[in-house]
UniProtKB/TrEMBL annotation:
InterPro entries to which the protein is assigned, alphabetical: AAA+_ATPase, ABC_carbohydrate_import_ATPase, ABC_transporter-like_ATP-bd, ABC_transporter-like_CS, P-loop_NTPase
UniProt entry keywords in alphabetical sequence: ATP-binding, Nucleotide-binding, Repeat, Transport
Molecular functions (GO terms): ATP binding; ATP hydrolysis activity
Top-level taxonomic group: Bacteria
A Pfam family: ABC_tran
Domain ABC transporter: 3-238, 254-496
SUPFAM superfamilies: P-loop containing nucleoside triphosphate hydrolases
Coiled coil: none
Protein known as: ABC transporter ATP-binding protein
Length: 497
């Protein structure tokens, strides 16, 4: 056995994030770890990667006991990890990012040409394509991820840990990643894959370990299981079908008229965008990321200003208004990137629950802490948010639990208009069911929802109408009845129906 983790326990105070976990990995194997948010997947991998020390338990590589005091130690032992959030230097080139820490050249002189050569060699060896001279910040997420993988390969990794690698990728990039994993295992590399996406797990994994509440609930060979059994092992119950009741849309809660943003390279970022959302309907926006969706959400929510055009929320012109003013006028916003817009990582769960809504929750200039406390603890229950207490700092929440907290806060504002951008990114399948159900409840209660998602299944499940964005324009609109993955895919790629 290449890797053997035996009886791993990790305690944080009284709380056990890992309880007596056994985990093993064969050479050339892809071993997936699945489980609910907060089940302890990332913790187990942080232990393997030397970022955390286990409270008890042993790790053996090729039969020899090892103890990694730091990621540097782990890298030297042949273990590399690609995190949920990329850790690259955005202003450096791809080649610089890959060789950093072990740069070619003598003394202080960095040999750029040699670095490019090294990266070209790696690309050839492992069958992956990147442009070594491109700057990371202008590379697509799929490319940045390849850079991370090439970087750990350059560092000599035999075991590569991928923590929810497909969350930010387009469907095509996901396929490329899965192909790259298969290719690399043929060359003897081994992967540990943390994922909530059971179809991807069933595609690429050889074995699957299911964790629940810090303990193993099953280890299965792929051939002996299916997505149904896995989801039952994960959440301990069957998932339910969504019930989307027919509605009659009401008055306009969002109107975007002829909105444009000029780009830096001649091409507009947003090009005469027109759309509306009415009370009680979900309008989905599909598109390959980078086609203007982020900018559209930014102008609607006051984070950016349009160069021309008009935006109205609940009938009031809010063009050029601040985020605070627009929020006060009836916008709630589940942001695309929870770490940038959604939360301050040092704030407590309670403060995060309050963020952006202080004015609404105050009386006579004072915050009603008792009311806020009972509100936030209600959300924690409803959305099964795993947290020590309301005073716990959000930096100790697992990724999916932080996402659930932000979703709960925005959904529960009960505003007439809600932006839901990637609302289920990083959440487990049970929580996804809860969030989808709650979004539909808001819709029935009359909230108009603008849903932006890179998951076509999510768009198709929830939307009454679907708009497709391509190169800053609305390239097409389909009703819920007309929309299929094939038609959307066609429009997303710039085609016509
Ligand atoms: N430093 C810490 N102090 C206290 N609790 C922690 C700490 N790190 C993690 N935890 C807790 O340990 C539990 C397991 O977290 P972990 O990140 O391993 O979950 P996960 O299975 O990866 O979840 P997700 O799918 O949401 O990413 C969580 O409840 C988390 O709040």
């Amino acid at each position: 056995m290449l890797l053997q983790m035996d009886n791993i326990t990790k305690k944080y105070g009284e709380f056990s994030a890992n309880r007596g976990i056994d985990f093993s990995l064969r050479a050339g194997e892809v071993h997936a770890i699945v489980g609910e948010n907060g089940a302890g997947k990332t913790t187990l991998m942080r232990i393997l990667y030397g970022m955390e020390q286990p409270t008890s338990g042993t790790i053996r590589l090729n039969g020899k006991e090892v103890s990694f005091a730091s990621p540097l130690d782990a890298i030297q032992g042949g273990v590399g990890m690609v995190h949920q959030h990329f850790m690259l230097f955005p202003t450096f080139t791809i080649a610089e990012n890959i060789v950093i820490g072990n740069e070619p050249g003598s003394g202080a002189k960095f040999d750029r040409k040699q670095a490019v050569k090294i990266v070209e060699g790696l690309c050839d060896q492992y069958g992956m394509k990147v442009d070594p001279r491109a700057v990371v910040s202008s590379s697509a997420p799929g490319v940045q991820q390849r850079v991370e993988i090439l970087k750990v390969l350059y560092q000599g990794a035999e075991i590569i840990i991928l923590d929810e690698p497909t969350g930010v990728l387009t469907p095509l990039e996901v396929q490329e990643l899965l192909d790259a994993i298969k290719q690399l295992t043929k060359q003897g590399k081994s992967f540990i894959l943390i994922s909530h996406k059971l179809n991807e797990v069933m595609d690429v994994a050889d074995r699957i370990t299911v964790l629940r509440d810090g303990a193993v609930t099953g280890v299965v060979e792929k051939g002996n299981t299916d997505a149904h059994q896995l989801s039952r092992l994960m959440v301990g119950r069957e998932l339910m079908e969504l019930d989307r009741k027919p509605i009659t849309p009401g008055e306009k809660v969002l109107e975007v008229a002829n909105v444009s943003i000029r780009g830096t390279k001649g091409k507009p970022v947003l090009d005469e965008v027109n759309l509306e959302v009415r009370a009680g309907e979900v309008v989905g926006i599909a598109g390959i990321s980078g086609n203007g969706q982020s900018e559209l959400l930014q102008v609607i929510s006051g984070l950016a200003q349009p160069d021309s055009g008009r935006i109205a929320v609940s009938g009031k012109d809010v063009t050029g208004k601040s985020t605070r003013e627009i929020r006060e006028h009836g916008l709630a916003h589940i942001p695309e990137d929870r770490y940038v817009w959604g939360a301050n990582r040092t704030a407590t769960v309670m403060d995060t629950g309050l963020m952006g809504h202080q004015r609404r929750l105050q009386k006579g200039g004072f915050l009603n802490l008792k009311e806020i406390r009972s509100l936030v603890s209600g959300w924690v229950q409803k959305f099964s948010i795993k947290t020590g207490s309301l005073e716990t700092s959000t930096q100790y929440l697992s990724g999916g639990n932080l996402q659930k907290l932000i979703v709960a806060r925005e959904l529960e504002q009960g505003t007439p208009f809600l932006i839901a951008a990637e609302p289920t990114r990083g959440v487990d399948i049970g929580a996804m069911e809860t969030i989808h159900g709650e979004l539909l409840k808001r819709r029935e209660a009359g909230t108009g929802i603008l849903l932006v998602s890179s998951e076509l299944t999510e768009i198709l499940k929830l939307s009454d109408r679907v708009l497709v964005m391509f190169e800053g324009r609305i390239a097409g609109e389909l009703s819920a009845k007309e929309a299929t993955e094939e038609k959307l895919g066609m429009l997303m790629a710039g085609g016509t129906l």
